[in-house]
Specification:
The chain is mostly helical. About 60% of the residues lie in helices and about 0% in strands. It is built from 5 helices and no strands.
């Protein structure tokens, strides 16, 4: 039985197969699902990141920022990805304004 590498939906370690096409890895899909949730308590999201992905929050957000720039993520969940991109842009603008000493 030859494994073509397509259509395998196991929970094993994601293989770097999704650079093109419309297939996100299982981890990428889990990250987007986590971002759809709302967090009631401070630190709850960071704890979930550590438990689900065994990553620091910093590393998780680095991966997430790369993920939301992909067309695959946009095709998977357009509203979520656009919201995350807007939030990132507004945070970047706020940081820049603070550095420049204005509130623009």
């Amino acid at each position: 039985m030859a494994d073509s590498g397509s259509g395998t939906a196991s929970r094993a370690r994601p293989v770097e197969q999704a650079p093109a096409g419309r297939a996100l890895s299982g981890r990428d899909q889990q990250m987007l699902a986590l971002e759809r949730q709302w967090w009631k308590y401070a630190g709850a999201k960071e704890q979930a990141i550590r438990e689900l992905f065994d990553l620091s929050a910093t590393h998780y957000y680095q991966i997430l920022n790369t993920l939301i720039d992909t067309e695959d993520a946009l095709a998977h969940d357009p509203m979520l990805v656009k919201r995350l991109r807007r939030l990132r842009t507004s945070r970047q603008r706020a940081r820049t304004a603070r550095r420049l000493g204005s509130d623009a």
